[in-house]
Every structure is written in C-alpha cells, then in structure tokens.
Amino acid sequence: MDSRAQFQPQPITEDDIAHFLATTPGFFERYAGLLASVQLGSPHSGRAISLQERQVELLRRKIHDLELRLAAMLRLGRDNVGIADKLLGLFQVLLSARSQQDLPGLLLSELERRFQLPQVALRLWDLAPEFADLEQAAASAAATSATSATSGAAALPDRLYCGPQAGQPALA
After folding, report:
1. d(CA 138, CA 62)
2. Are the CB atoms for 125 and 150 separated by under 8 Å?
3. pTM value?
4. 70-119 pLDDT, tens per residue?
5. Apex CA 16: angle with CA 12 and CA 18, to 5°?
6. Distance of alpha carbon 30 from alpha carbon 21, whole angstroms
7. Cβ contacts of 112 within 8 Å, gap of 6 or more
8. Regarding beta strands 39-41 and 48-50, do their DSSP bridges make them parallel or antiparallel, or are they unpaired?
C-alpha cells in the first residue's frame, strides 16, 4: 500500500479560508496589495468593484437606515412632547377645578378638546352619596343595573383600557 494515498491532503474549503482570515488579523497588513486587488460583485450594477467600494456601499446603506431610524425617533419624540404638553395642560385645568363635582365634566370636556377625541365617556360606580347625582353616575345606572355594571367593571382587565369592547356591560 502506498503511504502517499493514505495521507492525501483535503482540499481547502471556503470555511477554512474564512476561519484563517478571522484568526489571522495581520494577514492583510502583510499582503496589502492583495486586499486592494480583491474584486466583488456589486449588488446594484452587477459589475466587479473593489472591496473598498463594496464597503462604502454597505456603509452608505447602513447610514441611510440609521438616518431613517433617527428621523422616526425624532418624530416620535416630538409626538411624545406634544402628548406631555397636553397632559400637563389637562392636569393644570383639573387642579384648578372649583369643586369635586366639576371634575368629571371638566375631565371629559378637556380630553375631548385637547386630544381632539370625537367621543369621550366616563362611568362611575360606588360613589359617595354627595356624588350620586353626577351625570356620569346617572348615565352608569341608566345604561345597566347597578349590580351588573359593578360586576362588569370588576371583570375588566387589570390594565389600562381605551376603546369599545364587546360583551362588557360596564363599557356599554
């Protein structure tokens, strides 16, 4: 048996080359001319371009994506500042209310005006007797019986809620 046949070297794979380049950072410093002569296909034109040109294309695309993300973040930031300003104004108006009985109506009108909401509703249950004649308490009692309304309110999720939800008498 020929010993040369047993020890034939395996062909070098692309993974071997990639591993070598990743673990030998000084390779392209020693062979700078090779790096400058590497040609890659351009995804835009299909022609061969240098590695540097390809890197520039990738960086330009990355910069463009980052610019889009930054613009979106700035827009959201401006929106958040606007919401914060509206909330601050709402709180200032609520704090200046002359009586507790004025608060529900004031809250509704300010929410509608400041946030330009087409509809705003407020339902109140288990109020102290001095607040039983509030419109929001009467609307709650008229919409559903007191027992089903309070049980419906108790069944609501333990998180903030906004909007219609079918099957909830408390939200009717």
Report:
1. 59
2. yes
3. 0.52
4. 999 999 999 999 999 999 999 999 999 999 888 999 999 999 999 999 98
5. 130
6. 12
7. 119, 120
8. antiparallel
